[in-house]
Amino acid sequence: MHASLVVSGLRKVYEGAGRRVEAVRDLTFTVDAGELVCLVGPSGCGKTTLLKCMAGLLAPTSGEVLLGGRRVSGPPPGMAFVFQEYGRSLFPWMRVGENVELPLRQKKLGRVRRRELVVDALESVGLADAAGAYPWQLSGGMQQRVAIARALAYEPEVLLMDEPFAAVDAQTRADLEDLVRRLWRRRGITVLFVTHDIDEAVYLGERVLVLSASPTVVREQLKVDLPEERDQLRTRVAPRFAELRTRVYEQIQAAKRGEPVVEDAPPPR
Amino acid sequence: MKDDPAGRRRPGTWGGRLLRALFVVALPALLFGLWWLASDGSTDVYWPPLRTILETFPDVWTRARLRADLLPSLLRLLAGYTSAAVVGIGLGTVIGSYRKVRAVCEPVLEFLRAVPPPVLVPVIMLFAGIGDTMKIVVIASGCVWPVLLNTIEGVRAVDSVMSETARSYGITGPARIRSVVLPSAGPQIFAGLRQALSIGIILMVISEMFAASNGLGFTIVQFQRGFAIPDMWTGILVLGLLGFLLSVLFQLVERRVLGWYHGLRDSSRRSP
């Protein structure tokens, strides 16, 4: 049930009133089935545009996105999206349980199956007791957990996350990062995680894609050869972690200065 | 989780409740008292003492009279108001959802809204005759505007992230209207419904003053023409009471339907 995600030659140009903005120039990359890939780039580099094109929320100007070999032309049923703005992504008129359940109703799942999925998803984000609360009664971190639970219950093949932890405090953020790692390992979902936080990208990802400034291309792909088992204390002080984050940092700085991409730069060893 | 898990207002102590009730009653009681004192001993025919009006009240508003005059008025109001709500919310949802439809409709709506509804009474009489249909049409044609315009605004203002969330989870069509658009526009729609209610009561009375054989408006005009001035005043009191009761009822319904909205507002006020 786990699918790969292929982006090839993706280009997006916004046509405004007398203004043409090329947000994404030419993006080609692959996320293998069951992989966790982080995308980082300088701010304003078209990450959100890219993600929306991948989610079928925005039509690319040219190029295509393939999910499990099928071309994405609208929001595909095998994909779930977690937005940065949890407060605007959860429906405040529904209780937590109903929020998680709503997409499942749309999938025409039976009542029993829906219950199962909702309970299971809320349990796996540690919010088993919150089903009856309204989202606005929860803290920001908990609200984002609900959004993650809603995505999980949807049983996606691919999970897209758009800077999901940018708006929560640092401690909650660390917890949520570990949650994502844990869920990914347990469920084997393909995850594409967009962030502007370099440490977060290296800590979470199996691979980090560094994007250039807009108009966006892939600047560098970096394999994160840290051990599977990651830990907020030890992983972040490991020498290899420091090397990788330095490498990503340099690339982002170079991207900000608009330096050309050095082809086939060997990753540091 | 924040305190106060149900998200409702804390019920408060008995003392607090008593105090609140006192606040609610204080001003009406004061005004009534002033009226009583100011009118006591009045010999003006058109301005009878409140004492006289209140004494007349039970004789005028008997059970039979309530059934013969209040009930028809209420039924007309209910029919007109309900159809205005259905049409207003339905059309408003369509117009608010599509930018092109909105561009076409907006100038016409602005014009129609600007026409004061009582002006329509003679016109509507030409088409709908002088029966109940005419009165219901008059009420509906006045009530529909605030509902319609507020619904359009509310539907248009659905948050973009919420829309995208819904779309990405395949929530489209009727499910989107039911689960996302209408609840999100709910606070605005209710603001429109509230305005429509007071307009409805006014139009109910006015339509009954034109051509009617029963109803509150008809009765009040009858009393006035027959120089039964205290009786006329009791009719006005009944109207005031009716408006008050309907508004309380409306608030109860609103609190129930928009419970989430009040909770959300309270919670964001507590933690800015």
TrEMBL record, chain A:
The keyword Nucleotide-binding applies. Coiled coil: none annotated. Pfam families: ABC_tran (PF00005). Transmembrane segments: none annotated. GO terms for molecular function: ATP binding; ATP hydrolysis activity. Gene3D superfamilies: P-loop containing nucleotide triphosphate hydrolases. InterPro entries: AAA+_ATPase (IPR003593), ABC_transporter-like_ATP-bd (IPR003439), ABC_transporter-like_CS (IPR017871), ABC_transporter_ATP-bind (IPR050166), P-loop_NTPase (IPR027417). Keywords: ATP-binding, Nucleotide-binding, Transport. Residues 5-238 form the ABC transporter domain. PANTHER family: ALIPHATIC SULFONATES IMPORT ATP-BINDING PROTEIN SSUB, TAURINE IMPORT ATP-BINDING PROTEIN-RELATED. This is ABC transporter. It comes from Streptomyces populi. The keyword Transport applies.
